Each structure stands twice: as C-alpha cells, then as structure tokens.
C-alpha cells in the first residue's frame, strides 16, 4: 500500500436506516469522506432485515446517487445494502427488483441471541447449539446468495465474549474461508470494533476497559490474519458510519491492514464493487 493510494468505505448508513439518529444528506457525506484525503468514495448500505424488510428506500437512494455522481463527473458513491442473515437454511430477503438497483451486497448475522451466551447457566452443550446454528447461517447464507462482503466477522460473539469463544469461532472460520475465496466475497475490516465495542466484553463482567479492548483486538487480528494466510481472500474497509462525522472513517482498518501486512492487491476498491449486480 503506497502513501497516496485512496481507499473505499463500503459500509455507511445514511438517512433511510432506522439506526441513524441524525439524518444527513449524501452530499454532506461525500464531502466529509473526500475531505479526509485518503478516501476514494463510499457506499450507502442501509439495512434490509427480516424484521424491517422494506426496500422502497432503494430506488430513491439510487436516483439521488446517480444525480450526485453525474453532477460531480465521477462515481464517488455506490449503492449497496446491508442484508441481515438469520437462518440456517440461508434464506435471503433481497428481492430481484432490489438487487437490480444495487452495485453490491454486504451481509452478516445481526440478530443472533448472543446475549444468552453470557447467561450463568450456559454450558458446553448450549454453546455447541448456538455455534452450530451460527456456522450454518453464515456458510449457507454466503454460499447460496449474491453477497460481495461478509460484514464485521463474529461481531456479536466477540462483543459478548472477547476471546472466550475462540475455540468455537475459529473452526467456523475454517468453513467460511473457502466460501469467501471461491465466491470472491471480501472480508470486512471494520471500524465498528475499535470505535464502540471496546467496553462491551460481557462474559467476564465489566472488567477494566483495556482488557476488554485487548481481547477484541487480538480476536479480530487473528480472524483477519487467518484469512490472509488462507490465501485468495480479499479485504474491504468499513466505517459502518451511523453519523455524518464517521463517513469515510476507515483509518483504523487501513492501519490494521498495514500492521498485518495485507498487500494492496488484496484490498477492494470502488471499481471492484461498482455495478457488480447491474
Ligand atoms: Zn452490521
Ligand atoms: Zn452496518
């Protein structure tokens, strides 16, 4: 990775996401992203979940994005969607109509009952059931559907347990990596871990903030490193912004990629994701 290379932020929540508290315009977002100097553009990826399956915001955002890109004479914004996957069968919620509007699709589990993992009466049998379902959900959803990026790998489980579930998660990763490689699905390196997950490791109780963060940092680094060593898997940077000030905030993912020695040829850029489904 050279000094003047710019990178794509493939994961931004804009005005149509319920999780965005203060709505902002795409114009403001692209100005914020480009002002950083190291960002080549971003993708608007609002949620499409089974519990909020509305996809009517997509044609509206598509028109807005096309107008802005035409006005600026270059595609700085892409349209994606962040799809929740939640079922061992790999069921998928995006309609064909929606897919035709999108440049690309990002997906991962969001609504697993991960809080049960921190309950007192949990044992190996219950953990086993949880992670068996998680493996089926990720492997089947990614292998059966048009997904381009696997978002925030194991976010819920790392958030709740730090390194505690490593022995369950890495065997799952072994099953996911061939799917990523064979289907050309990139692994997300996400700002969401260093930004706001640093005091939420629950299994050991609240504990000192720094120990929670170190566990998260070690786990996520091991996940990215395993993908790098496996070979043939690409990586993509994400701010997972929910506010305009975080759009293009991919400094942490870029630093992590440098520290791990991920070559520039393995990083996804805007041109790789533009029009993948159109
Ligand atoms: Zn997400
Ligand atoms: Zn997100």
Provide a quick synopsis of the model:
The chain has ten helices and seven strands. By secondary structure, it is an alpha/beta fold.
Strand line-up of the largest beta sheet: 1-2-3-4-5-6-7
Radius of gyration: 18 Å
List the ligand species.
zinc ion
Number of DSSP E strands:
7
Protein structure class: alpha/beta
Secondary-structure element order, as H and E?
EHEHEHEHEHHEHHEHH
Beta-strand percent range: 5-15%
Total tally of structural domains = 1
CATH architecture: Alpha-Beta Barrel
Low-confidence stretches: none
Indicate the overall shape.
globular
CATH H-level superfamily = Metal-dependent hydrolases
* Terminal-residue CA separation: 29 Å
- Percentage of helical residues? 40-55%
Main beta-sheet strand count, sense and barrel state? 7 strands, parallel
By CATH reckoning, the class would read Alpha Beta
Q: How many helices?
A: 10
| Mean pLDDT rating | 91
């Amino acid at each position: 990775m050279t000094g003047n290379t710019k990178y794509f932020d493939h994961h931004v929540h804009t005005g149509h996401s319920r999780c965005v508290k203060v709505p902002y315009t795409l114009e403001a977002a692209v100005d914020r992203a480009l002002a950083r100097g190291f960002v080549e553009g971003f993708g608007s990826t609002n949620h499409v979940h089974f519990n909020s399956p509305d996809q009517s915001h997509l044609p509206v955002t598509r028109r807005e994005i096309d107008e802005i890109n035409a006005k600026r004479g270059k595609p700085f914004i892409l349209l994606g969607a962040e799809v929740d996957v939640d079922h061992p069968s790999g069921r998928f919620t995006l309609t064909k109509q929606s897919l035709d509007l999108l440049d690309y699709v990002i997906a991962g589990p969001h609504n697993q009952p991960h809080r049960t993992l921190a309950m007192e009466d949990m044992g190996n049998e219950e953990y086993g059931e949880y992670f068996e379902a998680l493996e089926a959900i990720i492997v089947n959803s990614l292998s059966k559907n048009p997904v381009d990026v696997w978002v925030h790998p194991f976010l819920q489980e790392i958030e709740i347990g730090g390194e505690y579930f490593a022995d369950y998660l890495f065997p799952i990763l072994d099953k996911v990596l061939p799917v990523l490689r064979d289907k050309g699905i990139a692994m997300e390196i996400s700002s969401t871990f260093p930004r706001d997950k640093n005091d939420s490791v629950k299994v050991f109780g609240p504990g000192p903030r720094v120990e929670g963060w170190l566990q998260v940092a070690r786990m996520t680094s091991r996940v990215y490193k395993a993908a790098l060593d496996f070979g043939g898997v690409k990586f993509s940077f994400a701010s997972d912004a929910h506010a305009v000030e975080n759009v293009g905030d991919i400094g942490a993912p870029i630093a992590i990629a440098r520290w791990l020695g991920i070559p520039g040829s393995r990083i996804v850029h805007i041109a790789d994701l533009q029009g993948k489904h159109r």
